[in-house]
Write a structure and sequence with these properties.
This protein is of the alpha/beta class. The chain has 2 domains: 124 residues, Aspartate Aminotransferase, domain 1 (Alpha-Beta Complex), CATH 3.90.1150; 203 residues, Aspartate Aminotransferase, domain 2 (3-Layer(aba) Sandwich), CATH 3.40.640. The chain is built from 11 helices and 13 strands. The model has no long low-confidence stretch (mean pLDDT 93).
Length: 357
């Protein structure tokens, strides 16, 4: 019998690191996850009731293209359901966008640092990443993104990890100045304002991406959406059928209907955000303005050491200290008052006599 050898696959993908930012092992029991920007206020009660009460036809395939959810989203956003696709989280939406609008060897531009899946899917399809560093004030460098022709430009507003929103004029200039497609990631838009979802008819090269993982608290059910007019045909052509399961689709519809819970949760985060920022500032952190459910800060001590000590105390935050230009920066998810109080207490314990310096 001849012994075979595994094909090494695409060479570019060897440098991609899907999931490496999320894999954490050996955490103490009950660790508070303030590192992933999920909704720490807990599950949406309407979704909890739905999941626990239903007899799910899991022996059948789901709706091929999430027709019921698309109809609900169209009503919510005031746009045609025909201009919407749904998928298994924004990760899958990015995958679909790159399949739809690029060919192998095409350039895809995006700011860095940003969501790691932009890079992962770019490399997965053999495209060339044009990674544009943020400016000194964390502004997105529009001129640099446009400097080289790109089939696809991906930007987020509000942006992660900075928490900043892009000025409307910058987004418009980006859309109007490129011959490629602009994918606008609005994962945190519920905590901010200025969504472009209602303006997709104005720009044939615009795709707006949204998620149920943050404000709607459905991170574990993986529901992402994209809306476009000019690009919807290409998106539908490459989207696999049945890519959203029956429970996730029903849960997303229930979450949309539970508007009061969404509004209450967003209000809590907006109230807690400056309070936590003030407490962190009092401990010696430099805290940047944010329009999201997280705060980017500069730690008063080496960020790696701080994060390690917090893990020992069952709190996890995101270390950005190894990212160029982000020395000793950390990103902290804003939680309910209890979460934020525990974080501050444990930071006081770690910093000790260095507080306020």
């Amino acid at each position: 019998m001849k012994k075979g050898r595994c094909n090494s696959g695409r060479s570019a993908i060897r440098t991609a690191k899907a999931g490496s930012d999320y894999t954490v092992s050996g955490l103490p029991e009950g660790t508070i996850r303030m590192d992933l920007n999920t909704n720490l206020l807990g599950p949406n009660p309407a979704v909890d009731r739905l999941i626990r009460s239903g007899r799910w036809e899991t022996h059948q395939y789901p709706s091929p293209h999430a027709e019921a959810l698309r109809a609900a989203l169209g009503k919510e956003w005031g746009i045609s359901p025909d201009s919407i696709i749904c998928a298994n989280g924004v990760d899958d939406i990015i995958n679909i966008c790159i399949k739809a609008f690029t060919d192998r060897g095409d350039t895809i531009a995006y700011p860095v640092p940003s969501f790691t899946m932009y890079n992962f899917w770019t490399l997965s399809y053999g495209c060339v990443p044009l990674e544009v560093p943020l400016g000194p004030g964390f502004e997105v460098d529009i001129d640099a993104l446009l400097a080289r022709p790109s089939k696809l430009i991906i930007v987020a507003s509000p942006h992660s990890p900075t928490g900043h929103s892009m000025p409307e004029a910058d987004i418009v200039r980006l859309i109007e100045s490129t011959k490629g497609t602009v994918a606008l990631d609005e994962a945190y838009i519920e905590y901010s304002s200025g969504s472009f979802i209602g303006r997709i008819g104005d720009y044939q090269n615009l795709v707006v991406m949204r998620t149920f993982s943050k404000a709607y608290a459905l991170a574990g059910l993986r529901v992402g959406m994209a809306a476009s007019v000019g690009g919807i045909g290409k998106l539908k052509a490459v989207k696999a059928p049945f890519n959203l399961n029956v429970i996730s689709e029903a849960a997303a519809i229930a979450a949309l209907k539970n508007r009061k819970w969404l509004q209450k949760g967003v209000a809590i985060i907006k109230k807690e955000r400056p309070l936590l920022g003030k407490a962190l500032h009092g401990l010696g952190f430099r805290v940047y303005p944010s329009e999201t459910n997280f705060l980017l800060c500069v730690s008063p001590v080496p960020s790696g050491e701080l994060c390690e000590e917090l893990v020992k105390r069952a709190v996890l935050i995101k270390d950005f200290g190894n990212v160029p230009g982000f020395k000793d920066h950390v990103r902290i998810t804003v939680g309910a008052p209890t979460h934020n109080r525990i974080l501050v207490e444990r930071l006081k314990d770690i910093l000790g006599g260095r507080m306020g310096k």
